[in-house]
Amino acid sequence: MKTRGQGTIEYLVIIAIVVVIALVVVGLLLQITSGFGVTNENSVKVSWKTASPFAIDDWTLNNGKLTLVLKNQTSETLQLNKICVSPTDCNTTPIKNIEQNAQNNITIDYTCEAGSRYAFPKNDIYIDYNKGTLANMRQNGVADIVGTCN
């Protein structure tokens, strides 16, 4: 009995097993990091905590108010002029001076049903501020702002 194709078949079976294992590993990594398309609230909060010059250390949406805990990450006082999470959802008054490494709660009116999810895309998020003699500077969003309404 001849075993002429046995080596090739064994090789192909081993390659198939390796491919299946690789796909399982990639699938698990995607599920852990992004929830298969659903933005993970913890991962975007980490992105915002390391942003500069302003970080958003935390946020909640309760009773129609989105509260952002804004932190000045620089070594100087910054003047906050405006923060927007969408084209129509902004906080423009009053202008606030935020000291170095200080936190400040900023509220924006936004209505949503308790238990429903909300998401503000990073492309719509920006912070306008003044730094010393430099006026009208802008920090663009580094990640989405997502969560569940309370």
TrEMBL record:
It comes from the Archaea. This is Class III signal peptide-containing protein. InterPro entries: Class3_signal_pept_motif (IPR007166). Keywords: Membrane, Transmembrane, Transmembrane helix. The keyword Transmembrane helix applies. The chain crosses the membrane at residues 12-32. It holds the Pfam family Class_IIIsignal. The keyword Membrane applies. It comes from Candidatus Iainarchaeum sp.
